[in-house]
Amino acid sequence: MLWVRKYGKLLVKLILIGVLIGLIGAGGYAAYYFYPPHYSGRVTVLEYHDISYDKGEYSITPELFRAQLELLKGNGAHFITSDQFEAFMKGEAEIPDDAMLVTFDDGFASYAQTALPILEELEIPSVQFLITGYAYQSKKTDKFLTTTQIQAILQHNDEAGPAKAEFGCHTHASHIFNDGKGILAQPIHMNGKQETVEEYHKRVRDDLVRCQSELQKLYTGAGRRPTAAAHMLAYPFGSYDPQSLEVYQSAGIQYAFTGEPRLVRQDDAALLIPRIHAGVPQATPYRLQYWVKRGISRAAAQ
Predict the structure, then answer these.
(1) Do 76 and 2 belong together in one domain?
(2) Which of 48, 102, 105, 289 could join 279 via S-S bond, C-beta 3.0 to 4.6 A?
(3) What is the pLDDT of residues 21-69, one digit of tens each?
(4) What percent of the chain has pLDDT over 90?
(5) Domains contained in the chain, number
(6) Is the C-alpha dihedral spanning 66, 69, 74, 75 positive or negative?
(7) DSSP code of 111?
(8) Looking at the whole model, is its pTM more than 0.85?
(9) In whole angstroms, what is the distance from residue 90 CA to residue 112 CA?
(10) Cα dist. 63→51, 66, 143, 281 in Å?
């Protein structure tokens, strides 16, 4: 056909140019996806729950947990303690580039059985946010850390080197989901009636004071000094009441962690600290690294 003879070569060139542009674009995306994140004056807080072979939504295998941390550490991440995090937030000390704080929620027994040996081998410190009421309930001891285990972990810190384990607050008895969010974040029905705002605030304050008191007992029983983590809170289910931040603070909470997936800036509100959820099955090592890079951009946009 005449148009084929006339425009065939041009059409082939256009197709080749399109393929080349596609390859360049794909290569650029791949480079961005796989290239390690680097930043200064920020902290990545990683959130985990259960490290086991359970098929839960917030459970990852020991192999995936190790692979994530090995990639991050191999690419230059510096893992910090809660004391270092607090000093950074107060402007009292600098933190290393590519700083990361590893945190766990709920106090699962797998923390002692599986996570800590990996963390100790990789020389990575961590903070475990406990539901302190669970530690005293014998019926839950097969799944959650007991007081005996917690104190043994604290005493083992002398031998753990850089991989020290710390404990913070995940409430004493308020890890309950109700009407779309945690009961720490809202008034609830109690004894057949709706709580008033004053009753809600008293309940929350009493719970958080109790949680920190129990943490103090655990540290004291182990003969150890509480670290900054003992006055840190991980909001259950990431939910909180924006109108009640002063109540949380009046209970002694100095830093509280949400589920907002970005990096921490020094000027972030102390009770609205973001975290990136690394403890989900879809968080492959390179995908987690990519999430950290997205968190850098989100922190810059705040």
Answers:
(1) no
(2) 48
(3) 554 554 555 656 778 889 999 999 999 999 999 988 999 999 999 999 9
(4) 75
(5) 2
(6) positive
(7) I
(8) yes
(9) 31
(10) 9, 5, 20, 11
**Element housing 232 (H / E):** strand 232-234
| Residue 28, burial from CB neighbour count under 10 angstroms (0-12, 13-18, 19+) | exposed
Token pair 């084929």 is found at 4
Q: How far apart are CA 284 and CA 302, in angstroms?
A: 27
Given a cut of 60, is residue 193 above it in pLDDT?
Answer: yes
> 78, 88 in Cβ contact below 8 A?
no
What does the alpha-carbon distance between residue 50 and residue 112 come to, in Å, rounded to a whole number?
A: 11
pLDDT tens digit sequence for 219-241? 999 999 999 999 999 999 999 99
Residues 15 and 74 in one domain: no
d(CA 211, CA 233) in angstroms, rounded, equals: 10
* Cβ–Cβ < 8 Å for 38, 76: yes
Please give the angle made by the CA atoms of 89, 91 and 96, to the nearest 5 degrees.
75
Asked if residues 80 and 100 have their Cβ atoms less than 8 Å apart, the reply is yes
Provide the 3-class DSSP secondary structure of residue 226: coil
Give me 188's structure tokens.
């609830």
